[in-house]
From TrEMBL:
3'-phosphoadenylyl sulfate binds at residues 548, 669-673. Residues 4-130 form the Heparan sulfate-N-deacetylase N-terminal domain. One of its GO terms (cellular component) is Golgi membrane. PANTHER family: BIFUNCTIONAL HEPARAN SULFATE N-DEACETYLASE_N-SULFOTRANSFERASE (PTHR10605:SF56), HEPARAN SULFATE SULFOTRANSFERASE (PTHR10605). The active site is at residue 443. Pfam families: HSNSD-CE, HSNSD_N, Sulfotransfer_1. Residues 140-344 form the Heparan sulphate-N-deacetylase deacetylase domain. Its EC number is 2.8.2.8. This is [heparan sulfate]-glucosamine N-sulfotransferase. It is a single-pass type II membrane protein. One of its GO terms (molecular function) is hydrolase activity. Disulfide bonds join 654-664. Residues 434-689 form the Sulfotransferase domain.
Length: 719
């Protein structure tokens, strides 16, 4: 390849097209064709002056009506002064639209990659144009700028009256370009009048102009709420800021609040949410921490305890960023971010932008005012985006209308992220999260397994729930919305709670909830919190399971189950009463084993999954428990042969208590009921045929597991 300094305009014709390409060029000064029909998001602004990134640009030479330039640039004659000879150069086409008149194919050709910021916009426009609008971004963009830490800050870094005047003046200028724009000020009243004389006058000036801005409460002393374990104490601190607001005519009805350092928002500190609601009637907050700080484009929102949590965007201005020239990387870096770089693109890609800034960014040389005013001007110059602003509640409602799939939170493990660990209650420990889950399905022997596991001195389960006994049922249903603290309270980290001899390190904690197996949302949620957990499932004949489940419902006095025979339940058609159809689904669906296991395997690797043959658990529990201990790598290995014994009266294996006495499971496990009728048995064999066939395939794929006898039987009689 030629070195760039030696390059010449080497032309190559694109095969079959009246189009020549010159490659390997350095260019500068890009401009757009205002008449190009491709432009939608992109606006033909001025010229993007300066060298364009890269030294391997291609330009297009065309001589046919099918072609229309979208972007031009000049050769970088600063590099080759001899080339220009002082003459004006013709612009070279760097992005070209092909209308398809020649060969019927419409194209947009780019002479360079997406390193050049303008190409990122043009690429979106090309997608929109070529897809006839199917792949188009909406052009509305909302912008909210929060100024945290009002009144907080060292002497010498705070606002003076002229800074406040500049704030108001710039707000007016921005509002003329962004309808509805007002700075959103978050205050900590405790530090009011803590500055130098001029700065205290600045505080007063701000309060005299209280109606110019939107306001929200920060913490009174700028404390981190996750350090509070006591709700009353936290509320009394919030109350102080509330009283301050009242005294100084600061509006208290924004329904928005921000927590210092994102503390308590995510990972959620429940008492923060409760206190916020009670004192400030908070409806919206925002954070950069959900699910993680980086990458910024993956930040999401969620709703917890009726508080809408929005993702917040970073604009590179932190408490200590106070001077333009001391911006990390210098003024050029800041301008690069504004002029097509990170800040500019954040607004291009996010329909709703909440930016975090700090009071200190508005004193000194007012870096933040420069930043926002400039980026908005730049956006107006180069895009057709419709910028506007609105108070946080409106933004939040808009956000969740756009992203209904984000409403439900997904709780991650706070210990997986050092930042999260820092803003998580000191009382919590990741040691008190389960290392394995017994997921069911129901009626396969999960209680027997749970009881046998609990006999092991190194294994502990959760403390019982008052509603659902040994099962917490967290990852499915409404308990999930109670939050992680609620779940973790079932796993006390002090060893006194359950087993005295073992430390948290040697304790192998688990949880069993038999409805997890077929819970739609469970694998995703479990994996988000416990990605390294082992997953244990038990399978028996799905027909037998369905029948046992039906008997269980009858024994529990479930009205519908008592009013209909098993056959009627499993054959209920679409015209049946809803309650009967629901019962049918709950009875039959968990037995579609392969389908549910595939769902788990979409989140967990096969090595973390252990499938127990439920018939073996019933007939030969000692071997099953030995296998399971090996799989879980539990030490020491517990010898179950001395502790489990077949109880002829119960008809099942039970726990050995003494030479003569066994402790068996209660009456509800191993019930007496008539055998399944022939008709139902035949029907279910047919019903589960495809599911059982898929299960055999899956088990084979998973490796050396012997195919359970019940599965072979179900399949042989089902054909
Ligand atoms: N050792 C031992 N003792 C008692 N019962 C045993 C045992 N091993 C397996 N089984 C079978 O477990 C079935 C109940 O399953 P679950 O405990 O998973 O039911 S539940 O979902 O928790 O309600 C229960 O179902 P039913 O026989 O229909 O009552 C038993 O067949």
């Amino acid at each position: 390849m030629e070195s760039p300094s030696e390059e010449t305009l080497v032309a190559a014709q694109l095969r079959g097209l009246p189009l020549y390409i010159h490659t390997n060029l350095r260019l500068r000064d890009a401009s757009l064709n205002p008449a190009s029909p491709v432009l939608r998001l992109t606006r033909a602004g001025e010229t993007a002056w300066g060298a364009l990134p890269g030294d391997d640009w291609a330009v297009f030479q065309h001589n046919h009506t099918t072609y229309e330039p979208v972007e031009w640039a000049q050769r970088n004659t600063q590099d080759y002064p001899s080339d220009s000879g002082g003459q004006v150069q013709l612009p070279l086409t760097t992005v070209l639209q092909d209308h398809g008149h020649f060969d019927g194919i419409q194209r947009v050709l780019f002479g360079s990659n997406l390193r050049f910021w303008l190409h990122r916009l043009l690429f979106l426009d090309a997608l929109s144009y070529l897809s006839h609008g199917q792949l188009s971004l909406n052009l509305e963009r909302m912008i909210l700028v929060d100024i945290d830490d009002i009144f907080v800050g060292e002497r010498g870094t705070r606002l003076r009256p002229d800074d406040v005047q500049a704030l108001i003046a710039t707000q007016r200028i921005i509002a003329a370009m962004v309808p509805g724009f007002r700075f959103n000020l978050g205050f900590s009243g405790k530090f009011y009048h803590h500055g130098e004389r001029e700065e205290n006058l600045g505080d007063d000036y701000l309060l005299r102009n209280v109606q110019e801005f939107n306001w929200f409460s920060h913490m009174w002393k700028h404390q981190q709420p996750h350090l509070y374990e006591n709700l009353t104490l936290l509320m009394s601190e919030m109350q102080l800021n509330y009283a301050f607001a009242k005294e100084h005519n600061i509006p208290t009805d924004s329904g928005y609040s921000i927590s210092p350092h994102h503390s308590g928002v995510y990972p959620a500190h429940e008492i923060l949410y409760i206190a916020w609601k009670k004192i400030w009637n908070v409806k919206v907050t925002s954070t950069e921490e959900y699910p993680h700080l980086r990458p910024a484009r993956l930040r999401r929102g969620f709703i917890h305890r009726d508080i809408m949590v929005l993702p917040r965007q970073t604009c590179g201005l932190f408490t200590h960023t106070m001077y333009i020239d001391r911006y990390p990387g210098g003024r050029d870096k800041l301008d690069e971010s504004i002029q097509g770089g990170e800040l500019f693109q954040t607004i291009v890609y996010n329909p709703i932008n909440i930016f975090m800034t700090h009071m200190s960014n508005y004193g000194s040389d007012r870096l933040a005012l420069y930043t926002f005013q400039s980026v908005i001007k730049f956006l107006q110059c180069w895009t057709n985006l419709k910028l506007s602003s609105a108070p946080p509640i409106q933004l939040a409602e808009m956000y969740f209308r756009l992203h209904p799939e984000e409403v439900d939170p997904v709780w991650g493990n706070p210990c997986d992220d050092p930042r999260h660990k820092k803003i998580w209650s000191k009382k919590k420990s990741c040691d008190s999260l389960p290392k394995f889950l017994v997921i069911g399905p129901q009626k396969t022997g999960t209680t027997a397994l749970y009881t046998f596991l609990a006999m092991h001195s190194s294994i502990t389960s959760n403390v019982p729930s008052p509603d659902t006994y040994e099962e917490i049922q967290f990852f499915n249903g409404n308990n999930y919305y109670r939050g992680l603290d609620w779940y973790m309270d079932f796993f006390p980290s002090d060893s006194s709670a359950n087993s005295t001899a073992v430390t948290p390190q040697t304790r192998y904690m688990f949880e069993k909830s038999a409805t997890y197996f077929d819970g739609e949302a469970v694998p995703k949620r479990a994996h988000a919190l416990l990605p390294h957990a082992k997953i244990v499932s038990i399978l028996i004949s799905p027909a037998k399971r369905a029948y046992s489940w039906y008997q269980h419902q009858r024994a529990h006095g479930e009205g519908i189950a008592n009013n209909y025979s098993f056959y009627q339940v499993i054959t209920a058609g679409d015209s049946a009463p809803k309650a009967l159809k629901d019962l049918r689904n709950r009875c039959l669906n968990p037995g579609k084993y392969a389908q549910h296991l595939e769902h788990w395997l979409a989140y967990y690797p096969a090595q973390q999954l252990h499938i127990i043959d439920g018939e073996q658990l019933r007939l030969n529990p000692v071997d099953v428990m030995n296998d399971l201990q090996r799989f879980l790598k539990i030490q020491p290995i517990f010898d179950y042969s001395n502790h489990l014994r077949f109880d002829a009266k119960k008809g099942f294996f039970c726990q050995v208590v003494s030479e003569k006495r066994n402790k068996c499971l209660g009456k509800s496990k191993g019930r007496q009921y008539p055998s399944m009728d022939e008709r139902s048995a035949k029907l279910l064999q047919r019903y589960y045929l495809s599911h059982n066939t898929a299960l055999v395939k899956l088990l084979k794929k998973l490796g050396s597991r012997p195919i359970p006898q019940w599965l072979k039987d179900d399949l042989s009689t089902g054909t």
